[in-house]
Design brief:
The chain has 19 helices and 12 strands. By secondary structure, it is α/β, with parallel strands linked by helices.
């Protein structure tokens, strides 16, 4: 067997074994590919990794790089992406931490070469996450017109409409005819979005918009001002990106124009950038819910610092999970449960130290009897609980210390009625 054939057969055997393992563990296709990549990295099978990456979409390659554990592995995989165009596309799909790790030691000239085919919004995003000195050095190595455009975009805060917009769009004068507009459209190869044609006056103020369908269904000599829609939905350059995303989603737009305070058209925001914003905001909200108020606290801080920031939230969740409502109106604050028995018929005994109606301390017990569905045998739960006050409802039995005797059908066997 030839060496090339042996290599291909080994790769097939590896994928076959991984497919079997992931199927048994209920993992996804991505888990399979990631496990395969990690195993090839451990074996140093660079050629096989290069072939695998050559068959993948840049967004999928970026997802793999994000999930690799060490910066060295990330750089190794990224360097195997062939072609500066694909390399730039992979970079534009990465998170800020991975971008910094990949480009930290790369010469500025190589970075500028990778970015030359990307849109202005993607280049602005990439340079915005790099240190300022590194970004300026890369800008000086780019084409003059490109660097001037990117520098203009970098002046806007990154979480605003101006920070995520692109300046590569098609706008035409309101006096342009439909025939001329179609010719201009055919030559607009650099335009980011051609589903909408934005119409401006002589001072570049946004005055209307029309779709391709409107343009193609009128006589060639028709001026755009006669067929355009004058009520244009737009956003200002300083609008928060989350509000921009809400507007695009609310009105089902593919793109939305960005204007200055005097209504001068300066850029557009496309739906793919809106999706990124929604994902970013959702991630930020989840981090806040978990007690991590900043991404850096989650990804860059030490383990001790991360634990310290999350400890109050974890303690709150722990206490909250122990809160119960006592039978017949007793308010329980903390509960500790021990289960033993052999299933089927459930008995929950509560030991409830507290204060009776006369203000005296006492220790009481309550028992709840129920049946666990689908089980066999007997189970008993003992609760160590603290409560404040109790009410004796009509018909309630009483234990020796004044705690209600409870009988209930309890599907989970905790002695508390649903």
């Amino acid at each position: 067997m030839q060496p090339v054939e042996r290599s291909r057969q080994a790769e097939k055997d590896l994928l076959k074994d991984l497919s079997k393992d992931t199927a048994e563990k209920g993992q996804t296709k991505f888990d399979l590919v990631l496990a395969s990549l990690q195993r090839l990295l451990r074996r140093g099978a660079i050629n096989n990794i290069g072939k695998m990456l050559g068959r993948m979409h840049p967004a999928d390659i970026a997802k793999l790089i994000v999930h690799l554990s060490s910066p060295k592995e990330k750089r190794t995989v990224f360097e195997l992406v062939r072609g500066e165009a694909r390399g730039g596309q992979v970079l534009s799909e990465l998170d800020s931490g991975s971008i910094q790790q990949l480009l930290a030691e790369m010469p500025p000239a190589d970075v500028a070469w990778l970015l030359k085919d990307l849109g202005s919004d993607d280049v602005t995003y990439l340079l915005g996450v790099l240190p300022e000195a590194q970004s300026k050095e890369i800008l000086t190595l780019m084409k003059t017109e490109d660097s001037a455009e990117i520098a203009g975009l970098l002046k806007y805060p990154k979480d605003t409409a101006g920070g995520i917009m692109t300046t590569e769009f098609l706008s035409l004068s309101e006096d342009t005819t439909a025939q001329e507009a179609i010719r201009r459209l055919q030559r607009a190869t650099d335009a980011e979005m051609v589903f909408y044609i934005y119409v401006t006056d002589k001072e570049d103020h946004l005055v209307g918009v029309l779709s391709l369908r409107q343009l193609l269904t009128v006589p060639p000599e028709t001026p755009l001002k006669n067929i355009m829609t004058r009520d244009v939905m737009s956003v200002s350059v300083d609008m928060d990106q989350e509000e921009v995303a809400r507007q695009v989603a609310s009105y089902n737009l593919l793109a939305i124009p960005v204007v200055e305070k005097d209504n001068t058209l300066v850029g557009i925001i496309t739906v793919d950038d809106v999706v990124d914003v929604i994902r970013e905001e959702a991630t930020e909200d989840m981090l806040k819910m978990a007690g991590a108020t900043e991404e850096d606290a989650q990804f860059k801080s030490s383990t001790v610092a991360a634990a310290r920031s999350r400890l109050p939230w974890l303690f709150t969740n722990l206490v909250g999970s122990g809160v119960r409502r006592a039978p017949h109106g007793c308010r329980l604050v903390v509960a500790r449960t021990v289960v033993h028995g052999d299933g089927g018929r459930c008995v929950a005994r509560h030991r409830l130290p507290g204060v009776d109606q006369h203000g005296h301390d006492h220790a009481g017990s309550a028992q709840a009897v129920g049946h666990r569905p689908g089980g066999g045998g007997r189970a008993v739960r003992h609760h160590r609980q603290r409560y404040y006050g109790h009410q004796h409802l009509p018909g309630a039995g009483h234990a020796a210390a004044g705690v209600p005797q409870v009988t209930t059908d309890d599907p989970i066997g905790d002695g508390i009625r649903p």
